Amino acid sequence: MQHRTLAHTTVGAIGLGAMPLSIEHRPDESRAIATVHAALDAGVTLIDTADSYHWHAGEEGHNERLIARALASYAGDTSGVLVATKGGRGRPGDGSWTVDAAPGRLKRAAEASAARLGVEAVGLYQLHKPDPAVPWEESVGALRELLDAGTIRAAGISNVTTGQIRQAYEILGDGLVSVQNRYSPAVRDSEPELRLSTELGLAFLPWSPLGGISRSSLDGPSGPVSAGTAFHEVAAERGVSPQQVTLAWLLRRSPAVIPLPGASRPASVTDSAQAAGLRLTDAELGRLEASLPAPPA
Hints:
- By secondary structure, the chain is an alpha/beta fold.
- 38% of the residues lie in helices and 13% in strands.
- A seven-stranded parallel beta sheet has the order 3-4-5-8-9-10-11, with helices on one face. The protein has a two-stranded antiparallel sheet with strand order 1-2.
- α1 packs across α2, α1 runs parallel beside α9 and α3 crosses α4.
- The protein starts with a strand and ends in a 7-residue tail after the last helix.
- About 4% of the residues have low confidence.
């Protein structure tokens, strides 16, 4: 697998979004752990989690504990694996999401995440979402304090605007290493944030990167079928899945991009990881771009 720079280290160019392993309709633990192990076998070394990735009330940290168990039970070397977690959101257990990025709450959450992951310091800690009730500089200031205290080794921000990226960069400096926004063929609202991240040398971690592309038959039927797009046509010509073509397209958007496709079974994550070795031609890229609406200026 090709590698990319993140948090002063290198990680596989395709990461694993671990949320599906813990939220609604999650797999049983044996399959969940097998999925993480399959990701590691395929060369994935970035795993993205959050304290709010759980299903029921009272399960805070479910996904973090699961990832910790999966890493502990893996037969291979995990020293090069970067676990990125997030704080600042909650799930009451009724399917809704809350936001609480008050400084005190973030600092307590980061300490709890480190304990659940079984690490002295969180490798990458990300502010999950700006809190409209808390001044942005105060939430980011909590990340600065966590860095200074050694509770986290690097900081990231998620679901942010270009203005928030610039302000966070002023506060955190080299401590800020990543931006995690939604970005996919169907949702390109974060094109300005992608450009700015590339300019500042920050990793850009697209969440829900396969939006607009129907899930593979490996995952079974779900949602609206989008077969027939240029991504499916190129995939058929190449003999690979549309998901691989989508992830390969994302990797060509910028050297800062490290997609985080979710997975809930080993076959899915194995397929996604293979996108790191798929080299799209300029002609193929042109076809894919021509099939999409123009991104924001």
